Fold:
Amino acid sequence: MSPASGKLTAATSGFALSAAVTVLFNTALAWAKDAYPPVNGFMQSLTGHHWTTHGAADLVLFAGLGLILTYTRAAQRIDPNRLIGALIGAVAIAALGLAVWFAFV
Amino acid sequence: MLHAGFGATGCLAAVWAFVETLNAQPGNAARIRAAALVTALSMAGAWICGGYWYVHFYPAEKTLILQGPWPFAHNLFMETKEHLFFLTAILAFLLPVAAREKTYSNSAARKLVLSVAALVAITGLAVEGAGAVIEHGAKVALLRGGSKGGR
Structure:
């Protein structure tokens, strides 16, 4: 695919960057829960199940960071091609990070 | 299973959004947005239904799987799946936001929608496949238990 031209709106670029950060946070939190049981226990104590807390944390981060980046227009200053590349890279690292962790650690 | 149905529908809707965006023009802009919305709503449905199952009923299935011949169905596939799904869901929620752009005249927006739709379909299918392995892990545990009981 050739390099893209055109600009993304503040909301699109903000939520795209927020998604990239959130997927990496998601994998880091999964590692932390698995490696350090007190983290798992603390998350369980918040909602009754660690997975429920994990999902809520992801949602809050995605929505909150997305809104902040939308209003500050911070992500809009990033070249769209770099932003799309960062999102794809973040998803690949996050997904492989989960599979490799649970396969070998 | 309702959550698997919602997940499959979300994957199909993401492919629909991808194909519509490949041929983006003013005439199909509404369909791109509709496909993106169906993707997000389906993944939200999969999250709610799958989450209810996972929290309330999976612990018994997990015990069964870990006692059976395929403990990796939980240790690798379920552990990965339960966290990988969040990636799929977040990307599915991003898709309607990206689809609000004029994909027919803005190549950056078109590239973003194509990328996000493809990632939703790929990670969603990986989650669906992991679900099949987990169900098989429970099945072989039950079969082994049944064959022992028959002896």
